[in-house]
Amino acid sequence: MVKKSLSTILGLVILMIGLTAHGLQSPEAALNDIQRSQFDDQYDVLLVGEKQIPLVIAESNTPITRGVAVMVSESGRNPFSEHGLVQLSTALNNVGWVTMIMPAPTSGFGPAPDQNANANQQADTTNQTPSPSSNGTTDDILNKASVNRIEQAAFDQHEQQIILQMRAIAEKTRQYNGFFLVIAQGTSAAWLTKIYAENKLDYPDGMVSISPQWPDRSYNQQLPKWVSQTPMPYLDVYSAADTSWAKATVSQRKIQSLKSLKMMYRQRELIGQTMDSQQYARLGKEIYGWLTHMGW
Domains in the chain, start-ordered, CATH in brackets? Predict the structure, then answer.
């Protein structure tokens, strides 16, 4: 196994910042860019059927390893960018966690352009399906025109792909002792919540869900139910910078979990700007506090 240092991850960050700034990137495209620009020992490749997914593993910086944290980005978002999950990796490495970072599948629907893209770049979206990261108003997501945004076949396709990716990476986590933690963003957090609630995948020891949401009213309304039915400890993170889809279920996610007497559920708000280095540092502290409370 190739084991990455912080300097290796930062090298990947520098490479991928410019790529993210120009819009979406599929896992396949991300891998192609890494292969052209990095040495073979600076990344791993996760084989998922015939697909190759880029994977960066960062070792724990402490003598005793607590476990492995698998980090899955929002679909279409680059986890190695300056606003990606790689920013959270260091905080977890410093308190005893091995981190495995990978992009989510993009199959099934097209995510939105990156929020940090050049504001002057305009696209004709008249006939395009709204994306999972659209930051519309509450009125937008309650509008009848917004009720159905993901076709059932596309939804099922994406769900199956993320299941296959998680099964593949689970094989790598078994090479380490300790707990198995899953950290996921946006649509990936929503899908994994549903998957674990329905026992479609062996569930981890704990899950951190960052701004879970679907760009579809019918699916999104069921998210609080699935959160309450997950069998593992669950940290539910939200912020003022969330999309309207994510904000729409914040209170119900907590209410339904309390009503169902869900054990080890905690909901926390991140105060401040959208996910930057400071926000990820805060998130790292929230995760550490939650895990410590559970005795991990």
Answer: 6-114+132-293 (3.40.50.1820)
C-alpha to C-alpha distances, 87 to 51, 84, 258, nearest whole angstrom: 26, 6, 31
Q: Which amino acid type is present at position 16? A: M
Flag whether pLDDT at 108 surpasses 80: no
User: Which position has the higher pLDDT, 265 or 7?
Assistant: 265
228 DSSP assignment: H
Q: Alpha helix (H) ranges present in 56-185?
A: 86-93, 138-142, 152-173
Question: Does residue 208 register a pLDDT over 90?
Answer: yes
Could you give the C-alpha distances from 33 to 13, 26, 54, 65, 114, in angstroms and in order?
A: 12, 11, 10, 32, 18
For Cα atoms 22, 26, 31, give the angle at the middle one, nearest 5 degrees.
Answer: 100
pTM here is 0.80
